[in-house]
Amino acid sequence: MTAARELSSLVLASASPRRLDLLCQIGLIPGTVDPADLDETPLKGELPLPHAQRLAGAKAALVAARHPGRFILAADTVVACGRRILPKAEDERTARRCLDLLSGRRHRVQGGLALLGPDGTLRARVVTTIVTFKRLDRAEIDAYLASGEWHGKAGGYAIQGRAAAFVRALSGSYSNVVGLPLFETAQLLKGAGLDVD
After folding, report:
1. C-alpha distances out from residue 151 to 87, 91, 122, 137, Å
2. Known catalytic residue: 37?
3. Which member of 21, 39, 76, 197 is catalytic?
4. Which tens digit of pLDDT belongs to each residue from 144-184?
5. pTM of the predicted model as reported, rounded to 2 decimal places
6. 90-121 burial by CB neighbour count: b if 16+ within 10 A, else e?
């Protein structure tokens, strides 16, 4: 197995340790990690897919201003039930509402991806993963809430943790649900001429 290589020309516009771990998983370490501090509130009437796309692009643009001459990689993960965008759970009440809503249902995870080049060229994708939860009983939800894993997670769960036991089926990219669709990320980087092999 090849060790991860640093791409000094790449800036990861994210505070998420999961996104950094995922890049390392495919052998890439960004030269700089510089999170974008952005209001992630959906616009009035904004649907999940355009919301994920807009936020990823806005994060890349914001961070690019601080790193001229570099490639900026930004991502946003949106959990959606129908047309409804689920919040990042910052308190137990919100996490419980999300889990109650997802229980026994299919939902979509939209991963917005943006790579902004030094010349201003924006390469963007949205990756959709369909996740189906089993029906959750109160004891399961209570135990999950007690774990604290839900904190700060879109839709109130982390698939790479205990919530994996709730997933009856998944169609699409697993890494997208964790926070960064790896296949599509590698393709964007290659398409921009970055040496990712």
Report:
1. 11, 7, 32, 20
2. no
3. 76
4. 999 999 999 999 999 999 999 999 999 999 999 999 999 99
5. 0.94
6. eeeebbbebbebbeeeebbbbbbbbbbbeeee
